[in-house]
Amino acid sequence: MAIFAFMFFKLFIASVPLAQGLVREGTVQAGPVATIPLDKQYVPVIRNEKIVSYKTAYFGKIHIGVARQQTFTVVFDTGSAHLFVPSATCPSPACTRHRQFYRNMSDSAIDLDHDGNPVKKNATRRDQVNIAFGTGEVTGEFVRETVCLTPGAMETPRKDCTELRVILASEMTKEPFMTFEFDGVLGLGLASLAVDPEFSFFGQMSKMNGLTEQTFGYFLSRSDKVPSEISFGGHDKRRLASDLQWVPVHKPELGYWQLKLVGVIVAGERLPLCEEGDCVAIADTGTSLLGAPRAVTQRMHWLLARKVPENPAEIDCRTFPGPELIFELEAGVNVTIGAEDYSRATGMRVLNNKTNTSQLICRASLLPVDDGEVLGPKAFILGEPALRKYYTAYDWKRQRIGFGLSIQPNPEEYEDIEPQHSIYGAPPSGPPVPTEVMV
Ligand SMILES: *[C@@H]1O[C@H](CO)[C@@H](O)[C@H](O)[C@H]1NC(C)=O
Ligand SMILES: *[C@@H]1O[C@H](CO)[C@@H](O)[C@H](O)[C@H]1NC(C)=O
Ligand SMILES: *[C@@H]1O[C@H](CO)[C@@H](O)[C@H](O)[C@H]1NC(C)=O
Ligand SMILES: *[C@@H]1O[C@H](CO)[C@@H](O)[C@H](O)[C@H]1NC(C)=O
Ligand SMILES: *[C@@H]1O[C@H](CO)[C@@H](O)[C@H](O)[C@H]1NC(C)=O
Questions:
Q1: Per-residue confidence (pLDDT) for residue 372, from 0 to 100
Q2: Lower Cβ count inside 10 Å, N or C end of the chain?
Q3: Could you say which of 77, 183, 341, 395 is catalytic?
Q4: Is the pLDDT of residue 275 over 90?
Q5: Would you say the CB of residue 16 lies under 6 angstroms from ligand 1?
Q6: Contacts of 351 (CB under 8 A, 6+ apart)
Q7: Is 1-211's fold the same as 237-439's?
Q8: What is annotated as the active site (predicted)?
Q9: CATH no., domain 1-211
Q10: How many whole angstroms separate alpha carbon 393 and alpha carbon 79?
Q11: Is 77 known to be catalytic?
Q12: What percent of the chain has pLDDT over 90?
């Protein structure tokens, strides 16, 4: 507990103006059980040999094992439901590039069959699982292990550790894992998304540790100097500008943090697709863009595109104003995204050969979501742009998501502090040069 208390204290010093301190009038404010700073990686998206945008990934440390903990970085992903890390026995380059779990260094790991029973001593083969991750795939075997959110000894019962079924990857595809810095993924999807509830990290933690607040909270920072954070066992009130507004999860049996959309309003236009009230929005910490059904992305792009006057040589389109994109949720909650969050930073210069004129255009960055996937034809994804503007809290017990405008700490407060997080592949500072197309 000592290490955990120290870390929390350090975070507290690092990020809170004194006036909003933890101790107020002699009472200790209850807070999350653990708050983990997140590393960030930029991965360039290249088209025609030019960088057109960046994908981002956020990940933090977890610690697996009891006597000798092994540390990994994982994406805390509300869009999946299992924990996997590379196994030391995995020969794939995507495994050897990352930290690998040494099964033989752990005396707490128990090998399991797919049904959760310990593997028999005389067994000659092991059950394997395949999990698809977007463009990639992980194959692995099962163990039961203790997983902690902060490092340190297990002498007293700890609220930030839980026993869990873990997948040790024996194969990982190069795409997409080779390019990423993180070692594995820790799924935070609802239990029904998992093969078995015992795979669900937060489900296990909530159940076994008697958490008073069965929620986790997610904060994305606008400045790379300030770490993004995930909190478990409560949300971090210091990062909230307003009270949370709660929206019930729609069809929790599907396992997604999915909300019902009353409507989607793009630049004042209500999308006909959602008029029957059967569109959904999925809060997904593992997606770096806003996702929209492929059928409407073109219309949305058209409505959100802006002509930039005076043809500047360079511009960061996130600073150029534009119309609003509104996700109207149940319970009277609107998630409103402005140009600063939905824009692609890089502008597009349209050169007209006939008239010999050019026009600079700022566009939205949208991820087309294909029909026929598990999600259905009317699913939007609230990825990073929405989760940066809004702090989100995920209430496991009551199956609801809370939204509140987030407070961005002042980056200057972090200047003299030893960084708690790493940034990988940051793009050069300054506005990006527009791409050019001929018409
Ligand atoms: C543990 O396993 C790794 C490969 O999985 C092997 O290289 C290493 O020698 C083993 N260590 C011990 C102490 O058995
Ligand atoms: C393994 O041992 C169990 C009893 O401990 C026995 O029932 C089973 O048939 C054995 N399996 C094999 C493959 O030898
Ligand atoms: C949400 O946005 C819609 C469309 O702009 C508007 O009609 C509605 O009143 C808003 N609701 C709230 C609670 O602000
Ligand atoms: C544009 O016009 C120039 C001459 O003005 C010509 O060399 C070039 O091939 C044209 N490009 C396209 C894409 O039409
Ligand atoms: C087109 O405009 C550019 C600058 O605006 C000029 O340098 C170029 O000569 C023009 N080309 C034609 C074919 O008029």
A1: 66
A2: C
A3: 77
A4: yes
A5: no
A6: 357, 358, 436, 437, 438, 439
A7: yes
A8: 77, 284
A9: 2.40.70.10
A10: 15
A11: yes
A12: 74
Return the sign of the alpha-carbon dihedral for residues 28, 29, 35, 41.
Answer: negative
Residue 164's pLDDT band, with cuts at 50, 70 and 90, is very high
φ, ψ of residue 2 in degrees (nearest 5):
-60, -45
Annotation says 341 is catalytic: no
User: Got the DSSP string for 130-151?
Assistant: EEEETTEEEEEEEEEEEEESS-
pLDDT, position 31: 84
pLDDT digits (tens, 9 = 90+) for 176-235: 999 999 999 999 999 888 888 899 999 999 988 888 899 999 999 999 999 999 999 999
In short, whether 355's Cβ falls inside 6 Å of ligand 4 is no
31's tokens: 């807070």
Is 319 within 8 Å of 338 (Cβ atoms)?
no
Tell me the pLDDT tens digit for each residue of 73-86.
999 999 889 999 99
Asked if residues 392 and 242 have their Cβ atoms less than 8 Å apart, the reply is: no
Predicted confidence (pLDDT) per residue in 363-384, tens digit: 999 999 987 656 778 999 999 9
| Averaged pLDDT, 43-58 | 90
Atom of ligand 3 nearest to the CA of 268: 5
Task: Burial-class residue 425 by CB neighbours within 10 Å (0-12, 13-18, 19+).
Answer: middle
46 exposure class (CB count in 10 Å sphere: 0-12, 13-18, 19+): exposed
Sorted by where each begins, the domain ranges of the chain are: 1-211, 237-439
CATH architecture of the region 237-439: Beta Barrel (2.40)
Integer Cα distance of 127 and 141 in angstroms: 6
Q: How far is the CA of 356 from the centre of ligand 4 (A)?
A: 10
Q: Are 130 and 50 in contact (CB under 8 A)?
A: no
What CA–CA distance (Å, rounded) separates 263 from 275? 7
Atom of ligand 3 nearest to the CA of 334: 1
- How many other C-beta atoms are found inside a 10 Å radius of the C-beta of residue 267? 15
